[in-house]
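We both want to read discrete structure tokens more fluently, so let's practise on a single case. Would you supply a protein for us yourself, any chain you care to pick? Would you write everything just below, so we can both look at the same thing?
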Amino acid sequence: MKHYRSKPSSMIVIGGRALGLEFAQMYARFGTKVTLLQRSDRIIPDHEPEISDALRHLISTDDRIDIVTGVQVDQVYQKDGSKYVKASVDTGKKVLVFEAEQLLMATGRRPNTAVAFGKCWHQNKKRRGCHS
């Protein structure tokens, strides 16, 4: 997590599972205006729909987090000090552009070690494994 000298005024969080929700709620409680973008049609999609609906209602009203679901991120870019996320929403029916001072990616916890170890293994065959 990047260390900020001051609280960002606005933030886009991409990812609506546990870590994304925790960071979104934390920053919202610090006073940052937070927009959370989730790929699936609901936050925490691995849980029961009733829990997802109740949690969405709670954090969108109590913490004033804007939650947008059904989002396919098409482009992320920076311009004039702001971060932008261009995304298709509602299975491509709408294209929206979100703007914020900061962007936080919380899109998963599965490591992509196959690529890293594959490169490392090929570069260091004689020494067997990863070495710096």
About this structure: Residues 10-127 form a domain with the FAD/NAD(P)-binding domain fold (CATH 3.50.50.60). The chain has one domain: 10-127.
